[in-house]
Specification:
Helices cover 19% and strands 36% of the residues. It is of the alpha+beta class. A hairpin with a 2-residue loop joins strand 2 (9-10) and strand 3.
């Protein structure tokens, strides 16, 4: 399964979303739809998960890496994850929805128990290694 996710960084903290149907936090992320490229999927997922009042420039998404992982949703599904970083400032306000229960700006002192496999195994180590979060 092809999946995309986007890093939004502010003050050395990473924006995470808590979907209502999942026990863990994750990036604004989701599946790539048929006939959709990974960049368009990342942008679409950010619009869907952050809400209509979140303002970002669609030209400031930059692909940074991809990797294979096991989905946290069932611990069985193999995913190929395409990771983007937003190279701008997220403006506006974030909106909870039927899909998204909560948002946090994550810093490493909050621990890893609440994180998805993708965050624990790939994204957080990448962010620390590249001095994106503290």
């Amino acid at each position: 399964m092809e999946v995309v996710g986007t890093l939004f960084i502010k003050d050395n903290k990473l924006l995470l979303v808590k979907p209502r149907r999942r026990p863990t936090y994750q990036l604004p992320a989701g599946k790539v739809e048929p006939n959709e490229n990974v960049l368009k999927a990342a942008i679409r997922e950010c619009h869907e998960e952050l809400g209509k009042n979140a303002i970002f420039d669609e030209t400031k998404f930059k692909f940074i890496m991809d990797f294979d992982e096991i989905a946290s949703s069932d611990n069985m599904t193999h995913i190929h994850f395409h990771l983007f970083i937003y190279e701008g400032k997220l403006e506006g306000t974030l909106e909870e929805s039927e899909e998204i229960e909560h948002f946090i700006w994550y810093e490493t002192n909050k621990g890893k128990d609440m994180l998805s496999n993708t965050l624990k195994n790939e994204v957080i180590p990448y962010c620390i290694e590249n001095d994106l979060i503290i």
